[in-house]
Design brief:
5 helices, about 190 residues, rod-shaped
Length: about 190
Amino acid sequence: MLAIVAIATAWSGYQAAKWDALSARQYALNASTMILSQEKITSSGQYRLYDVLSFNGWMFASTREDKHLMEFYERRFRPEFQAAFKDWIKLDPLHNPDAPAGPGLMPSFKDPIAEEATGLAEQAKGYFEQAVSARETGDQYVKVTVLLATVLLLTALSQRFSQLGPRVVVVSVAVVLLLFSAGLLVKLPRA
């Protein structure tokens, strides 16, 4: 029985360490992916600022009816903004009160960098959830390891009793703990 408990304890400790390593790797992936997401969000914000400033310049030129300056700004619009701008102009926004306030509010305006940031944030969330799950599995293996160590302690303790009755009771408790621990080991996933 001691040999079985010793092997099961070692196996459980090994699995706990493997799951801990898997959890650490997933947490690292979460952190690095979240950093990439934040970088994309920052870039997206900078491009949005560029769009707003360019559009404000165009609006200024429009109010002055400076066609040359308006065309200058239109040539410098980003492709994503250019498409939305064309759709916005079709709505005659200077005379149509129902038109959106600007091209950035048009349904046709797409921000692929922001979309990529959102995708990376979702991916990071998945890594985090996997890390938490791996950590919980590792914790379950640690719990089994503690139970198996208790079996070893009870087995060693039972040998201290000279009378058969107390020895049988302590060994019986140890066997019940061993069976319970073995059941947990069988049910837990392996890394």
